[in-house]
Amino acid sequence: MWQRSLFWLGWLSLLIPGYFISYGFTLVGSLVLSGYTETVDLVLVLIMGTALLELLLIAIYTLTRFWFQDTSFGRLALWLVLGAAGIPLAALLGCVYAYAKLVLSM
Q1: Is there a contact between 88 and 23 (Cβ–Cβ < 8 Å)?
Q2: How many CA atoms lie within 13 A of 44 on its CB side?
Q3: Residue 49 burial (CB count, 10 A)
Q4: What does the alpha-carbon distance between residue 55 and residue 36 come to, in Å, rounded to a whole number?
Q5: Roughly how many angstroms between the first and final C-alpha of the chain, as a whole number?
Q6: Inter-CA distances, 23 with 41, 48, 94, Å
Q7: Stretch (H or E) spanning 3
Q8: pLDDT in tens, 48-63
Q9: CA torsion angle for 31, 36, 39, 43 (degrees, to 10)?
Q10: Distance separating alpha carbons of residues 57 and 87, to the nearest angstrom
Q11: For the chain, what percent of residues have pLDDT higher than 90?
Q12: Which of 9, 21, 33, 60 lies 20 to 30 A from 66 at CA?
């Protein structure tokens, strides 16, 4: 019973980084769609879009594996930690790197 509760808590925690990544994606994406096409903006949209897609795929993968009991709880917990912490951290580092490259090239 505690594993089921912990899984759902972890799975719902994927919504938090998903919200912030999708907010950044729509914010920068609206700039790109309105004609502001600097290279760094395109890179930021690609980074955040890819992170959002990976987060969605992890959510689908863990939900189906939990639903059909195909995978151990430890492996599901590792996937959820990767989705809740690893992917947003990688996206953040990629965005900071792209922004730093922009500032240093000015």
Answers
A1: no
A2: 27
A3: 17
A4: 27
A5: 56
A6: 14, 9, 16
A7: helix 2-12
A8: 999 999 999 999 999 9
A9: 10
A10: 12
A11: 78
A12: 21
3-state SS track over 24-92: HHHHHHHHHHCCCCCHHHHHHHHHHHHHHHHHHHHHHHHHHHHHCCCCCHHHHHHHHHHHHHHHHHHHH
- Token digits for 52? 């959002």
Q: What is the pLDDT of residues 74-106, one digit of tens each?
A: 999 999 999 999 999 999 999 999 889 888 887
| CA 106/CA 94 separation, integer angstroms | 19
Tokens for 65, please give them.
């594996």
